[in-house]
Each structure stands twice: as structure tokens, then as C-alpha cells.
Amino acid sequence: MASYLVTGASRGLGFEMVRQLASLPTSEVSQVFATARGDAPALQELVQNSSGRVVIVKLDSTNEASVKQAATAVGAALSGKGLDVLINNAGVMPYSPEGVVTMDNLESTLSTNVVGVHRVTQAFFPLLKKSNLKKVANITSTYGSNALAPIYMITPSPAYKISKAALNHLTVQYALDYEKDGFTFFAISPGWLRTELGGDWADLSVEEGTKATLDKIIGAGKEQNGQFLNIHVKGWETVPEGKLNHYDGKNAPW
Q: Catalytic: 164?
């Protein structure tokens, strides 16, 4: 059985990951820590029906004191055990209607999507080090792929794209630095999902995309260290007419 921590769990992909993880047998998932910056009624309801397996932890990844307090709370809840899997999911995606990167957009997006991930990973590193799995999954996007950048020019979110490219490289740095210590770090794109962030016109339902993402995270081993994973969804092995994306399960290009 493994313990998980999911950041940005109050809605969308993060919430659905917590819900699906909590639905798995206790022999596979022992406890799920769901972080949120503020009140999260949907998470509270999930906690009430989880028989103690889901724990809400207040965490703002842009605030160092908040992150440290969260790590202390999780450590106490684990009672000396390590944290097996960290899923860095919290992120923002501002739009720039004219397609130009503004300073405010870039600074705030990097603060959450890159520096925030680094801050959380550092704070929870001692707990991860005590576990057997030592697995960290950073939720990224193919928008951060340099190779695919021309395809995604139609989406006016340059700060988001830059931040995900930076997150991908942060992931590689961690993977190289800590492979010798038994860690597995990888970036994974969950696809374009019909969430508040992705919109109603996105490719996949949040349930479908989340399951495919968790399948990859749970199945990842040491051979995935430092890689940029893509989900596999049946029927999306090639790009459908009128679509930009495909979900064939093969690693995304850098």
C-alpha cells in the first residue's frame, strides 16, 4: 500500500485524482493527502466518505511558511512513515489575448508552476526519502514542448507554456540529482481535460483523463526517471480530424 499527496486538489484534475485514488483498495492506496489553499466543500464531502483515508491539508505553494506547515502536518499524520508519492498538480494558466507575455503574467505563473513545485518538493523531500517508492510526478503539458510549440501557437497562453517548459527541465534536474538515492521523478501531461481550466470543448472528460494519468503514475518505475510521459486513451492513438492532440502513451517530445 502507498501514501499519496496531491497538490491543488480542490477542483478539476487534482480533486478527481484524490477521488479515484481513494476508490482503490487499501492494499494499493493507504492514505491520500489532498492539499488546498482555502475551503474546499467537495473535498470535505469526500473526506466524510473515505473512512479516514483522505486527509485535507492547507497548502499554498507560493507561500513558504504554508508549505512548511503542511509538510509538518503530513509528517505527523504519517506517524514516522514516509510519503510514497508526491503529485505536484497545482498550477495556473493565464491567457494573454494579444499573445504577448506580460511581466505580471510571467512572474505569477512561474511562481506557482515552477517555483511552487520546487518549494513543495523540497519541503516534502525528507518524508519522500523515508519511503520505499520515492516517486514524484510533476503535472505538465505538451504546451511546454519546444518541438510542438508551432502547433500550439493558436493558444494565447505564453506564460503557461514557458512555465511548463521550465517545469520539465526542473524535473530532469531532480531526476539526475537523486536517481542514485532511489528516487523517480517524471513529468506527465494529463491531456486537455474538460475542467474549469480546460473548458467544455476540451478533448477528454476529467474522469477519463484522470484515470489515464493515474495509470501512468502508478505504473511508473525507475525506467521512467527523468521522462516526459503522455497518457494513453483508446481511440486517440492518432490525431483525430480537427484536433491537435493524440494520447498514444508514448513519451511526449521535449
A: yes
Let me know if residue 106 belongs to a domain.
yes
Q: Quote the domain boundaries for residue 115.
A: 2-230
User: Per-residue confidence at 198, pLDDT binned at 50, 70, 90?
Assistant: confident
Name the domain count of the chain: 1
> Is residue 247 situated within a structural domain?
no
Mark whether 141 is an active-site residue: yes
Catalytic entry in 4, 160, 178, 247: 160
Q: Distance of alpha carbon 53 from its chain centroid, rounded?
A: 20
Note whether residue 239 is domain-resident: no
- Find the mean pLDDT for residues 19-45: 95
Q: What is the H or E stretch that residue 186 is in?
A: strand 184-189
**Residue 19 near residue 11 (C-beta atoms within 8 A):** no
pLDDT class of 176 with cuts at 50, 70, 90 = very high
pLDDT, mean over the chain? 95
Q: Residues 141, 145, 157, 189: which is the catalytic one?
A: 141
Asked if residue 240 is part of any domain, the answer here is no
Q: Which of 164, 174, 216, 247 is catalytic?
A: 164
Compute CA distances 111 → 89, 106, 108, 192, 226, whole Å: 14, 8, 5, 22, 22
User: Residue 184 sits in a domain of what CATH number?
Assistant: 3.40.50.720
Asked if 58 contacts 35 with a C-beta cutoff of 8 angstroms, the reply is: yes
